[in-house]
Amino acid sequence: MLEVEGLKAWYGAAQVLFEPSFHVGHGEVVALMGRNGAGKSTTLKALMALIPQRSGRVRFLDEDISDLKPFQIARRGLGFVPEDRRIFSDLTVAENLDIGRQPVRHLDGRPAPSWTMEKLFTIFPNLRDMPDRRGAHMSGGEQQMLTVARTLMGNPLLVLLDEPSEGVAPVIVEQMANAIVELKKEGLSVLLSEQNIHFAELVCDRAYVLEKGQLQWHGRMADLATDVAVQRRLLSV
Amino acid sequence: MTLEALLFQALNGLAAASSLFFVGAGLSLIFGVTRIINIAHGSFYMLGLYLAATLAIKVGGGFGFWGGILAAGLVVAALGGLVEVLLLRRIYQAPELFQLLATFALLLVINDVVQYVWGPEDLLGPRAPGLRGSVEILGRNFPSYDLFLIAIGPLVLLLLHLMLARTRFGRLIRAATQDREMVGALGVNQAMLFTIVFVLGAFLAGFGGALQVAREPANLGLDLVVISDAFVVVVVGGMGSITGAFLAAVIIAEVKALCIGLGLVHFGAFAVNFSKLTLVAEFLVMAVVLIVRPFGLLGRPQAPVRNPAEIEDPIRPATLPLRAAAAALLLLLLLLPLLSKTSPYVLVLSIDVLIAILFATSLHFIMGPGGMHSFGHAAYFGLGAYGAALMVKFAAAATLLALIVAPLAGLMGALLFGWFAVRLSGVYLAMLTLAFAQIVWSILFQWEEVTGGSNGILGIWPQAPFDSRPAFYFLTLALVLAGVLLLRCFLFAPFGYAMRAGRDSPLRAEAIGIAVKRVQWIGFAIAGAFAGIAGGVFAFAKGTISPDVAWVSRSIDAMVMVLLGGIQTLTGPIVGAAVFTVLQDNVMRQTAFWRGLLGAVILLLVLVFPGGIVGALSKRAAARRKPA
């Protein structure tokens, strides 16, 4: 579904990504793991064309999207959930969700998974009680849920999820894990950037591990979860 | 003055507020979404007024008048769309100041096009068909058309408010104002959104101008007057707040109207002519509001722009070839009086260039390494010029003594205004510095007893031994050289490092013990002092000065010089000032439309060299050094 080859990215003169290649299949939940600064977030942003200096080949649904603009990529069905939430704090919950709204997509001639506010409220019940609350007046966990829900309003086929478990209360982490499992059940594919191996283990099928912008390991999530040597070498455990 | 008269004057103020609000609201909407401060917004207003007046006269009748107002707004909106697609779209990624420069160039071009089409005379439209009469209010006749204006302001406010709150388009505008990149990542076509917002903003400006057709004549000076009023409205109301813009427009218009209404008032032995204070008054309101509420009445701190332009290279001491080139240039400049014996004009022009170089370098000092984008640097140039001139006029001071007072005058002004200005940053700082410069200008203009008012001060010629052209040239050269080298020294001293640290990361600079505000304040004062020297030399070079020395266009000229040369380099302002001055001198002698031509040249430069002339050259040099 998503195939990435030789992705490179720079911030100014500093190269951050050194040609990692990876793929995400239909209905798969894939983890992109690594320590702080390994290049996880940069990878996701580069896929969305949010980093001006980048090169490499990105194919989504057998189409080359490397040269498209962010909004065009989003309209192809690649949803992006940024790590720092970036909700519109002047807008209410309902308005935030409205900004994300896009038409229902089709995949192989059939309607792809689609979302309404009502359906999203069953996954994120906290949001149901506060449709008129401004983003600025929400807790970190609520904001995190809103960010995910807002992207889902665009009815994506594949979601790029950047560290949804970071900096939120344990109870929210649990809800977030449940939500990802729900997405998988709906038939969505997910590329999850994550540091927390326990969280990734709960939801992911396969994993790629980045270190200094290079791909260092890939394989089944279950194998990574038991391979203490790899974890010690590449992850902050 | 009676209470009735005061209330009547207040109604007059309300009628003036509506158009002010439309321009301010348009400016604010455009800035919020695209982050471009559209200086040409004043031109849109002016164009709207010209178009409406022409249509009302040529087509005539109720249709020509009322239809003309609407048509004028629509034509200006279409023009705005064209400008956005052809020009602005190419420079959204360029540094903020370059965008400013581009829209200013646009203002110059539009002004000359209008002059070409309509000529230099004022154009007065007819009175409004159907609303020609007046209504008796408080025992006086109040024009019915003004009542209509009073009503339409709040009506448009309501419409805009509903649009922003209730429609998806409005929600997109509000979301993009906060984080336009995220809006794009959610699948919204930013380019389209930007164009539509720009068209809407341009329509509001054109419509606002057109509505004034029955109230004021169209004239070529409106663009700058309106844009500075609109700045005040937007900054007082708070960037991005439509309701704030309305509130501010009402306050500003009321303050102006009341000043005119009060006229001459006696306080015991003192008499204050309030009608002379209108210019100062609106800027005083703005200064007070900004000091109390730095983000305006209803504004909020600006969200930082995501993915800002390229990271700047650190500045470096001059390389050997550059030093050699500078030495050769200096030798040439020293020999210039000999070389130019046959054409004395070369020396006159060279003195102008040298003055411009010092002025631009002093502005670059705070704009580039200081990160403070001053829109009112001419204030300190003007203070220096008047400081020196007044010493000659009242104390018959020697030339050198007067030239010592010049930087002191600039320094004093910069210390006072800078103390307020460094408390703000970004657009707000730019607007506040503009406001201070306008205050200086109005004082120079209106304090006739001392400054000679609009006539200025005459007969300020250098005394012996500087009374010959070559001698004065050498004096200028010495002062400018010393000034430029000293400013350079400051930048490579710990002070300069501290100032740059404060620009790049105020928080981190504070955390390592730098008093950022104080460093900026001192930097601002230093720049003011050197601008003062440039002003003092200017006074002696011209022999006559008028309040024009502190006028907006001089501030903007200096900014153009700095940006033309490239803000990231130290040689930039020198090259920029020289190129600009020579260009201006040449073009001015060729054509009456030199401003428009200048604008066109600037637009071309901005589109071709988004890093300035020197910036482009050094980038090319860097590319040669390490082939990618």
What are the key terms here?
heterodimer, A: Rossmann fold, six-stranded mixed beta sheet, five-stranded antiparallel beta sheet, 13 strands, 27% strand, globular, B: 628 residues, mainly alpha, ABC transporter involved in vitamin B12 uptake, BtuC, 2 domains, two-stranded antiparallel sheet
Walkthrough of the structure:
The complex is a heterodimer of chains A (237) and B (628). Chain A has 237 residues and is of the alpha/beta class. Chain A starts with a strand and ends with a helix. Helices cover 35% and strands 27% of the residues of chain A. Chain A has a single domain (2-234), classed as P-loop containing nucleotide triphosphate hydrolases (Rossmann fold, 3-Layer(aba) Sandwich), CATH 3.40.50. The model of chain A has no long low-confidence stretch (mean pLDDT 90). Chain B is built from 24 helices and four strands. Chain B has helices at residues 3-34, 41-58, 61-86, 96-118, 144-166, 168-185, 190-211, 222-237, 242-262, 278-292, 320-339, 345-367, 378-395, 399-421, 426-446, 448-451, 469-492, 494-504, 506-511, 516-542, 552-565, 572-590, 594-608, 613-625, and strands at 134-137, 140-143, 264-267, 270-273. In chain B, strand 3 (264-267) and strand 4 (270-273) form a beta hairpin. Chain B is globular and about 70 Å long.
* Biggest sheet statistics of chain A: 6 strands, mixed
The CATH topology of the largest domain in chain B turns out to be ABC transporter involved in vitamin B12 uptake, BtuC
Question: Uncertain runs of chain B with pLDDT below 50, 5 residues or more?
Answer: none
Distance between the termini of chain B: 75 Å
CATH homologous group name of chain A: P-loop containing nucleotide triphosphate hydrolases
Q: Helix- and strand-based class of chain A?
A: alpha/beta
How many separate structural domains of chain A?
1
**Count, helices of chain B:** 24
Number of helices of chain A: 10
- Number of DSSP strand runs of chain B: 4
- Which range does the strand content of chain A fall in? 25-35%
Rg of chain B is 25 Å
Please identify, by name, the CATH architecture of chain A: 3-Layer(aba) Sandwich
The strand order across the widest sheet of chain A is 7-10-11-4-12-13
